[in-house]
Amino acid sequence: GSGKASKDEL
Amino acid sequence: MNVFRLAGDMMHLLSIVVLLLKITGIKSCRGISLKTQELYLLVFITRYLDIFTNFVSLYNTVMKLVFLGTSSAIVYYMRYDRIIKLTYDKEQDTFKYLLLVAPSAVLALATSHVYTVLEVLWTFSIYLEAVAIMPQLVLLQRTQNIDNLTGNYVFLLGSYRGLYILNWIYRFFTEKHYRQWLVWTCGVVQTIIYCDFFYYYFLSWQNNEKLALPA
């Protein structure tokens, strides 16, 4: 969902 | 990880190195906004609370620790170092924290994807990062004779944001289910905030003149 995938960014 | 993301992270790291070199090398933080630096520290703390619970890669963990450590060091030097703190333009650095922190908190509470402490604070950090550069840009406008290191610091930070947008465009086309409206919107807003600065940075570079932002 939203946000999840960006958790692998800094 | 794609080349844009890596280049973006390296620009971010380099910007911090340039700032630390300026502060510790010439023992001066003239033209640097403590407010922006404290807001970045708050951004890193609220975003990286998952550092030990959500392991992504060694690279991510190390970078998170480096960002937390270096931004703490910068704030420490500017606030407490006997010599360096004397060079801080306190009277000029007047931007109100609340003006940026309060809307970010309200928006985080209103738009968080899931209502857990970690998720709300993570969302807060995304909003806050988008606007945290504003005290620095206001201070730059007020600073006469901006030195090269300060100008390069802000330029590198802006480049990091620009490269992250390219990274998102790349991921959008190469990964399924990569739809990050919140992160994208904040990232684009953040990059637009730099546009004015970039314009004058390139102008000064082209004309071989010292950087100066019109008030």
TrEMBL record, chain B:
GO biological process: protein retention in ER lumen; protein transport; vesicle-mediated transport
Main localization, broad class: endoplasmic reticulum
Parts of the chain that traverse the membrane: 55-77, 97-115, 121-140, 152-170, 182-202
PROSITE patterns, per the entry: ER_LUMEN_RECEPTOR_1 (PS00951), ER_LUMEN_RECEPTOR_2 (PS00952)
Membrane topology of the entry: Multi-pass membrane protein
Pfam family, one: ER_lumen_recept
Protein name: ER lumen protein-retaining receptor
GO cellular component labels: endoplasmic reticulum membrane
Keyword entries, A-Z: Endoplasmic reticulum, ER-Golgi transport, Membrane, Protein transport, Receptor, Transmembrane, Transmembrane helix, Transport
Source taxonomy: Eukaryota, Viridiplantae, Chlorophyta, core chlorophytes, Chlorophyceae
PANTHER family per UniProt: ER LUMEN PROTEIN RETAINING RECEPTOR
Localization (cell): Endoplasmic reticulum membrane
InterPro entries with a match to the protein in the record: ER_ret_rcpt (IPR000133)
One MF annotation (Gene Ontology) recorded for this entry: ER retention sequence binding
Family under the similarity heading: Belongs to the ERD2 family.
